[in-house]
Records
---
Amino acid sequence: MRRISFLSLLALSAALAGCGSSPPVRFYTLQPAPQAAPANVPRVDYQIELAPVTVPQQADQPQIMLREGQNNGALTPLYSDRWSASLGNEIGSALTDTLTRTLGALNVQTLSPAKDIPVWRIQVDVQRFDMVEGGPARLDATWRVRPINVKNGRALICGSVVQVPADQINVVGSLVHAQQQAVVLLADTIASAIQSGGARATPASGQVQLLGCAQ
């Protein structure tokens, strides 16, 4: 009995020591650092409503999922590197941040807009959210803008692929920053569709590829 108790104590001590040596968990967000509002963006007479963003289940995990290579299907969960919220909420918050600043419009996602107030409803369906070991970060999405009570506004649905290189190899923070940039570029491309009244979308940069749009 003494031997069993002694071995049990050793096992417990080893387990506690292992827990004590576990690396700390780091939390990341896709929301960019706070920025001052652009000086020359006038307030508009419409509001925006961003629906909850849908993301692929394999990417929608608390831990960051690292793809081992561009042509490799293997995903590695980084248990010490996690998102501060669900991935859909992270992307939605980052999109809202850029859209409201770029357009000068209020987001009424959780509020009921006043009757007859013009609203652009935005839906984003993410098909691919890749953080590739060594870069790049890739964001594929189908998105739609739809006018409600907007005079001469037209609905538009588009597919986009955004790829942003990572600055450093095998550094999670660099990949997160690249995805932050990818979300900003996607938001600016969506904003261009709203600014055109749904007539067309303009890629925000050469890192954005439009796969086609339809009314």
---
Amino acid sequence: MTSFPAVSATVVLVSPTLPEVLPTAAWPALRAAETVYASADLPEATRAALDAKAAPHPDELVRASRVALVTTRPDDPGAAALVRRGAAVIDTPVPPLVRAVEVMDRLRSPGGCPWDAAQTHESLLQYLVEETYELLDAVEEGDRSAMREELGDVLLQVLFHARVAAEHDTDPFDIDAVADELVTKLVNRHPHVFTDAEAVHTAEHQQQRWEQLKQAEKRRESIVDGVPLGQPAAALAGKLGQRTGRRGVPSDLFPAGSDEGAKLFRIAAAARRVGIDPEGALRATAKEFARKVRAAERAARAHGFDPATLDADGWRRFWPRD
């Protein structure tokens, strides 16, 4: 039976997303080690910074004393062998947001989930829309638990699209590039916060400043450039009404005519110009109507009637009065 000497060893687990970040507790062990090894999955820059050697075969590794192995994988063969021989394990705390990126990467990578691996930007669009509306409903209902869940589902879509984008043949980008561009935008659009620019004292003033900076930044030729035309019609009409109103386009230039489309546009655009979200207002009214339909159906059933058989007078009879 083969015997092994007592092993004084440490395994340091780092995040595959942030391999350059080591916990404070790891440094005494790294300094005390006769040799610091790095597993094959550790980036070269991190290896060089630690002056770490490539990890040998696990059989050789467990025979050494006073060694430290830095790896991103708890199931690394060398790490597993050292742990079986009593090595101490120092784990790097990983922020939940970073962990979410790691989980998404694992799902998308070889050996992960076949469904996740098969998705494209286009196939994911339906889920982005659905999750956004589910979050919208949770906010409107004031359901904090649902809001937390639905915000996570929307975040998943962002992480998913960024992971797919990282695989592009000619123009790849990842979640870090997305976040970096967002930070740059927020800083540039708030010069009164991040520089000594003229102060902004009201939300309305900041909204105007935002649009001005956006116009200059993107060098748009039209005031309606950048308005997403694929959004719901009431929201689109409202956005166009708001955008043109800021540049002095009078409301008498709204689409004329008595057709329903023109009338709906005028209502939605005019509402947004006075600070009312037409999409939200219409949705609230629609949800209230749906509530009353359900109430009438319950009342009908309580009186022994099948709602499917109600005529106009029947619906009026059971319609809630509140």
